[in-house]
Amino acid sequence: MLYSLSKKIKDVVPDIGEREVLLIKEYLDELWRWNQKINLVGVSSYERVIDNLLIDSLMAEEFIPTEEGKLLDIGSGAGFPSIPLKIIRPALFFHLVEARSKKAVFLRHIIRRLKLRNIEVVEGRLEDAGNKLFPKYDIITFKAIKIDYALKLSLPYIHKKSRIITYHGKIEEKKIKAISENLALKPVFIKEYRISSKKRYIIVFSY
After folding, report:
1. What is d(CA 40, CA 130) in angstroms, rounded to the nearest whole number?
2. How many other CB atoms are there within 10 angstroms of residue 179's CB atom?
3. Burial state string for 13-22 with b = 16 or more CB within 10 A and e = fewer than 16
4. Of 39, 55, 52, 72, residue with least CA distance to 5
């Protein structure tokens, strides 16, 4: 299992170290163990966690700075994409916003277990986070949230060089264009790839 996991990860992040691969495996093992007791992710097998959640999350690696910066993950759930991205980008500071208590508890647990630094869980809705967050972030990520809603939530927290990274199972060009014009944001990168033979997209927005 470790060999096949390592190979899949290195296909996406070729320069990842063995320590980081082991941390990711420990995260996935613990997530799957918890998932047998409380519903954290809605996938039917460990292999699907790897493909549909982990590898999908890591596809944004090329858009994440390596040396410094602040990242805000909206609706972190069980930690995708935030935990894998934190493991491969340890120098960045991460805020994980999660409204559901059981998922926030798991996030805090996994952060302690993996001994991750410069990463904090903010339990509650983004609208109510107040002074728990930084005024601005360099990167904002979200998955499984309506794009127009999440982009509106992101606007107060971005500066002119920020990137908002969004994950999609499909894209509608007219809708993306309309949202962009309405919010004065531009889709500066669109990445198309396949997970389990299905098309997936990452759209990166900026001013």
Report:
1. 26
2. 17
3. beebeeebbe
4. 55
Cβ atoms 82, 94 nearer than 8 A:
yes
Spell out the domain ranges in the chain. Answer: 2-206
**What's at 89, amino acid-wise?**
R
Helices (H), the chain: 2-12, 18-35, 46-48, 56-58, 82-88, 101-114, 147-154, 173-183
User: Tokens 């992710």 sit at which residue?
Assistant: 41
Q: CA–CA distance from 69 to each of 17, 50, 66, 94, 108 (Å)? A: 21, 27, 8, 9, 21
One CATH from 1.10.10.10, 3.40.50.10320, 1.20.1070.10, 3.40.50.150 for 2-206:
3.40.50.150
Chain centroid, CA 25 distance in Å: 17
CA distance 207 to 202: 17
Q: What is the pLDDT of residues 141-187, one digit of tens each?
A: 999 788 888 899 999 999 999 999 999 998 888 989 898 889 999 99
Residue showing tokens 């900026």: 206
pLDDT per position as a tens digit, 3-27: 899 999 999 999 999 999 999 999 9
Look at residues 172, 174, 176 and name the one whose alpha carbon lies nearest to residue 185.
176
- 193, amino acid identity: Y
